[in-house]
Write a structure and sequence with these properties.
Length: 421
Amino acid sequence: MRQGWGEGVADDGADDDGQMLTLVADVGEALNRSSYPVPMTQQVIREICEAYDYDISAEVFATYLIALDKKQGKVAVANTGTMFRFDQIADTESLVDKLRAAALPVTQALKRLQTISVAPPPVNPFVRILGYLLMALGFALCFRMSFSATIAAVVISIPIAAILLWSSVKGTLAALMPVLLTFLSALAITLWAVHGGLDDPVRLAVIPVVTLIPGAALTTALIELTTGDMIAGATRLVSALVVLLSMAFGLALAIDIVGLPARDLQDLTSTQAPSWVLWIAAPIFAIGNILYLCTPRRVWVWTVVFAFGTFWLNELLQTKINPAFAGGVALGTALLLAWAVNAHAKSKPSVLVMFLPTFWLMVPGSMGFVAVSGAITEDHELGGLGTNAALSLLSMAICMMIASVLAPFVTRRLWAKKSAV
């Protein structure tokens, strides 16, 4: 029944219950660091335990995991570290595919997980900083910022990117990075706005720190809550809201220090840049993700295609339905197609690596940040964006959950066709 496992691990006498328990904990930690929602992590762990014929249960939370072997009376706990880069996510998914088929000895799998977790970036820091600048440029174009505002966003992103790369290595002041960097970004932007005449400084201040906005965490929390993982979902939701509020506080503090007039806190993005910039916004943002997060080469084309296609599917849907619902349908469609590509393409590109840049491009975490900032600064026009942001997050969470339910049917059909041939 398990020929791959029997041939692969029969000679490995070191494989025992303790190692399998450690493997379950390490796999759960790696999936948490790869941005997997808790229900998906639990499903993967169950499949791996069934493949290796072990009875191990796991309780997965937003920041840690508890694995329990009731038969042996052993427990393993793993705390979630910082998020993986895309090269690490792709390697994790490739390893998980083998573990689901029990095609790898447990000892070898443990060593492979350890190698993935400590792997250095495959590109140098200057290339990653360039990628961060392209992400800022792409996001500014999505907002249709004016030329001067776009230049300001890219220039201010340079020191922000350098600090983020340094802090990811040193690990100092990690908890304070969102509020500190938002304050510094907003301070530079507001000073530039006062003395240089920049439009829409509140939204512009979001762009250099867009990777710190917990829009993905908010959406993941909603997915977990709607699927019944109340503890994990509530914990992640509270954590994301605290980060969001702290960043809005940093922005409001910078505005208050500089003394930016209330009349300058306006949402002017729809009238700034010409509409043609939208054609290059998504590809530029995707290329920035490729460089900054070290995307494997086999996924480069898919990353750009998914970002561009989903962005314009959303634009098309907005002409027919509410924009909040359009974003949800577009993201759900993209996630379903990502699973189909993963099952059909020979290179088996990582689902998350293809999908996450599109997710970050579409997720309205920036709207929520701007809305909270508007409430703090008593700007009612900006504060009113909060309702749309909440509706968009809920729409995306539900549509992604539907895509997760449909994905197994799509992938099985694709594999059935390939087997028939």
